[in-house]
Amino acid sequence: MSPLLTHDVPSGAAYSVLVRAGRVVRLTALDDGANCSTLLFAAHDRVDRLNVPDTLKAQMSARICAPMVLMSDRGLGLASVTGSSLDWHDAISGHSLDAHAERFGASSYGSDRNEWRRSARHGLLSELRKHGLGPLDLHACVNFFSKVATSDSDAGTLTWVGGHASAGDWVTLRAEVDLLVVLSTAPHPLEPSWRSGAVGVEIETGSPYGRDDPSMTFRDESARALLAAKEVFV
Questions:
Q1: Angle, CA 108 vertex, CA 105 and CA 110 arms, to 5°
Q2: Which of 11, 57, 147, 197 sits in a 20 to 30 Å window from 219, CA-based?
Q3: CA 214 to CA 83: how far, in whole Å?
Q4: 175: helix, coil or strand?
Q5: Which tens digits make up the pLDDT trace of 57-87?
Q6: What's the pLDDT tens digit per position in 96-118?
Q7: Cβ neighbours of residue 29 under 8 Å, at least 6 residues apart?
Q8: Contact 131, 197 (CB under 8 A)
Q9: Domains in the chain, number
């Protein structure tokens, strides 16, 4: 079946899309080393938005992987990770700031045209403003296609894991409620060089699922989040 919508987001750019409940968002790395910093909002009231700390704590994880449920501030399931070619997507490093982009030297559209280096914050805010949102609506993101690990130092600081994603790697998210998805393809904040990649976005028709769905059976907390979303948004 052909996708309902396709859009390729160039490296270092940003994009937003409204997705109906039940549909599937497929993100595909079009280049090696792609990163996709992603925010999620319930489209109807935008009060419910992705809460990364609760998502990780409730599902006993330090990473995002299938079949986890991405939860809101109120514990509602916003989206389920229905599949992925990678077993690790970073959710603890946050998105890049202007200072991260500035490490690689001055850049502007006037001098660099489409190669203008912009942070994920710049791109995410540009997209949020299209929907009447702003800086106060920024929240912790998922960096799809990226991986970090603790270093060997006593401080246990985070270190970048290079070569994690290759062109063709993918992840699918099933929208459990009507969603506003906002993303940036700027490099990960721990990426040591200005190197990212384009990401393809496809919206596909989803299929009904029951209590034996992997996201329902993953953990009791995952099932509660999915059932709570149905109760609130039906």
A1: 135
A2: 147
A3: 10
A4: strand
A5: 999 999 999 999 999 999 999 999 999 999 9
A6: 999 988 888 778 777 777 777 88
A7: 36, 145, 165, 166, 167, 168, 169, 170, 197, 199
A8: no
A9: 1
